[in-house]
Automatic annotation (TrEMBL):
The keyword Coiled coil does not apply. Residues 459-469 have a biased composition (Low complexity). Residues 413-469 are annotated as: Disordered. The lineage of its organism: Bacteria, Bacillati, Cyanobacteriota, Cyanophyceae, Oscillatoriophycideae. InterPro entries: Peptidase_S1_PA, Peptidase_S1_PA_chymotrypsin, TPR-like_helical_dom_sf, TPR_rpt. Keywords: Hydrolase, Protease. GO terms for biological process: proteolysis. This is Serine protease. Residues 439-458 have a biased composition (Pro residues). It holds the Pfam family Trypsin_2. Signal peptide: none annotated. It comes from Phormidium pseudopriestleyi FRX01.
Length: 469
C-alpha cells in the first residue's frame, strides 16, 4: 500500500480532528500491517481474578512453542508470581490464558517455570486449536543503530535507534484505560551507548533493553517485535507514569520510556531450568533494511501514538508544552524536546515533569551534569508537594524513581561531553499566536529517508510539511 507524503498529511489532520482513540492500520504499508497481524496472533492475555476481593488485573504473554496439544507461553515472572522466588511461593490467583480468538484456558500453575534471576517465566496450557507461534530473533540490535541519513535538501543528520513494536493488553485502571483492548505501540530501541543512565530497572532481573514505545501496566510479559515481526525482547516495565497537573487535576503528562528483557537472556537461561528449545523457532539474522513505504507507515503510526496520548491542555499551559517535549523525546529529537520544555518552564517553572523531561533528554545526550541538575530540581519541587500533601503516596513513588535516575548518572558526570549532539531537521516549537484556539499538536520530527519525496501536486501549499521518518 503506497503511502504518499501529501495523503499522509491529510490523514494525520483528519486523525487529529476526529481524536481517534486507538491506533488503526490505515497508515500501514503491507509489511508493517503484517507485523501487527503477527503480534496480535501470538500475544495472549493473562487475566487475574482475586476470589476474595473480586478485583481483576492482567498481564500479557506470547506463544513460543507447541508439542502435541500443549502450548508454551513466555511472559514476565511478575505476571504470574508476586515475588521472584524459585519456585514461586506466592502465585497470583485465578490466572487464565486468553488467546487472540477469545478462547479461555485454565492455567495449571504447576506448569509455571521461572528462569533463574531474571523476571521471566513460562507457562503451558492445552488446546486442540492451531495457533501461530512467535519467531524469536537473537541478533546484535546495535548493528546500524546509529546512522547518518541524507535529507532531500542535502542535509546530513544522525539518526538513532531501530523501530520496534510493543504488543499487549493494558489493564483497566479507571483513569487512562477504561476498556480492555489490545494495543500495538511503535517506538525506537535505544542504541547500547544511549541506554547508559536509563537502566534503573534492575539489570540483574534482565532489564537491559530500553525503548520509547508507550506502554501501560498490563502489557508486562508481552512481546517486543522488530520490523520483520520477530520477537527480540519481553516487555516488563514502563516508566511512563502519567502525572496529574495539581492546578487542574485532569491534565496529565506521559513521561519516560519502557524496559524489556532481550530474548537472548531467555535463550541462554532456559536450559538451566530444563526448558526445551527444540520446538522454539529462532533466527539470528538482523532485520531487513526498511524501504520508503515502511518508513512512512511506521512514522505515521509513531505520530498517532503521540497524538493519542496528548490531552486537551490549553496551548499556553505548561502541560501542553510538556507533552510536546515528551513526544519529541520519544522520537529521539533532543533539540526540539528541550525547546518545548523551555516553553513549559516559562509558563510554570514549578511543574516538575518538565525538569524531569529535561533530565531524560540530557541523559540521552550524555550531558550528565545538566541532567543531574534537572533531576535535582524536579526532586526539590516534589519534596515541596510531599510536604503539602503528605498523605498522597504517588508523589513519594515518583520521587524515588527520579532519585534512582539521578543516582544512576552520578558516576558518569565527569565524562559529560562539552558539545551538543548534531542538530536535526526541524525547528523548535513556537508559541501559538492565538491561545484561544487549540492547534493541532506539533508532530515529532520523523526519521528521514534517503530517497527524495515524490512530486507533490501543484495545488499543495508551500507550507505543507514534509514527512521524513
Amino acid at each position: 500500500m503506497k503511502v504518499h507524503h501529501v495523503f499522509l498529511a491529510v490523514l494525520v489532520g483528519v486523525a487529529i480532528a476526529l481524536a481517534q482513540p486507538y491506533l488503526g492500520t490505515a497508515f500501514m504499508s503491507d509489511s508493517v500491517d503484517q507485523v501487527k497481524a503477527i503480534a496480535q496472533e501470538i500475544t495472549v492475555l493473562i487475566p487475574e481474578t482475586n476470589p476474595q476481593s473480586g478485583k481483576t488485573a492482567n498481564g500479557s504473554g506470547f506463544l513460543i512453542a507447541k508439542e502435541g496439544n500443549t502450548y508454551t507461553v513466555l511472559t514476565a515472572n511478575h505476571v504470574v508470581c508476586r515475588n521472584q522466588s524459585e519456585p514461586c511461593n506466592d502465585p497470583r490467583p485465578g490466572l487464565k490464558v486468553i488467546t487472540h480468538d477469545k478462547q479461555e484456558y485454565t492455567l495449571d500453575f504447576n506448569t509455571v517455570k521461572k528462569l533463574p534471576e531474571v523476571d521471566l517465566a513460562i507457562l503451558q496450557f492445552d488446546s486442540n486449536r492451531n495457533y501461530k507461534l512467535a519467531t524469536l530473533a537473537n541478533y546484535d540490535t546495535n548493528l546500524n543503530s546509529e546512522r547518518e541519513r541524507q535529507l532531500p535538501n542535502g542535509q546530513i543528520i544522525r539518526e538513532y535507534g531501530h523501530f520496534v513494536f510493543a504488543s499487549g493488553w493494558p489493564g483497566i485502571n479507571n483513569r487512562d484505560i477504561t476498556e480492555l483492548k489490545y494495543r500495538f505501540s511503535v517506538g525506537r530501541l535505544l542504541p547500547e551507548n544511549k541506554m547508559v543512565g536509563f537502566r534503573i530497572g534492575p539489570v540483574a532481573k534482565g532489564y537491559q533493553a530500553v525503548y520509547t514505545s508507550i506502554t501501560f501496566p498490563g502489557m508486562s510479559g508481552g512481546p517486543v517485535l522488530d520490523t520483520d515481526g520477530r520477537v527480540i525482547a519481553v516487555h516488563g516495565q514502563n516508566e511512563g507514569r502519567k502525572v496529574s497537573n495539581e492546578a487542574s487535576g485532569d491534565q496529565r503528562v506521559l513521561i519516560g520510556y519502557s524496559l524489556s528483557i532481550p530474548i537472548a537472556k531467555f535463550l541462554n537461561l532456559a536450559p538451566q531450568v530444563s526448558i526445551p528449545l527444540n520446538n522454539v523457532t529462532v533466527e539470528t539474522n538482523p532485520a531487513r533494511a526498511l524501504n520508503e513505504d515502511d518508513l512512512d507507515a511506521i512514522g505515521a503510526e509513531f505520530v498517532l501514538a503521540g497524538m493519542q496520548e496528548q490531552n486537551a491542555a490549553q496551548p499556553n499551559s505548561a502541560v501542553y508544552w510538556a507533552n510536546q517535549g515528551n513526544q519529541y523525546w520519544r522520537a529521539l529529537k533532543p533539540p526540539e524536546a528541550l525547546g518545548a520544555y523551555e516553553k513549559a518552564i516559562e509558563i510554570d517553572s514549578e511543574f516538575y515533569p518538565v525538569w524531569y523531561g529535561k533530565g531524560l533528554v540530557n541523559t540521552f545526550q550524555a550531558k550528565y551534569d545538566e541532567a543531574f541538575a534537572s533531576y535535582s530540581k524536579a526532586i526539590t519541587i516534589i519534596d515541596k508537594q510531599i510536604a503539602d500533601f503528605p498523605r498522597e503516596t504517588e508523589r513519594q513513588e515518583r520521587r524515588e524513581w527520579v532519585v534512582k535516575l539521578r543516582d544512576q548518572i552520578q558516576p558518569l558526570m565527569a565524562n559529560s561531553p562539552p558539545t551538543a549532539t548534531p542538530t536535526v531537521n526541524s525547528p523548535p516549537p513556537q508559541t501559538p499566536p492565538d491561545s484561544t484556539v487549540q492547534p493541532s499538536p506539533p508532530l515529532p520530527p520523523p526519521a528521514p529517508t534517503l530517497s527524495a519525496p515524490e512530486p507533490q501536486p501543484e495545488t499543495q501549499p508551500e507550507t505543507e510539511p514534509g514527512w521524513l521518518w
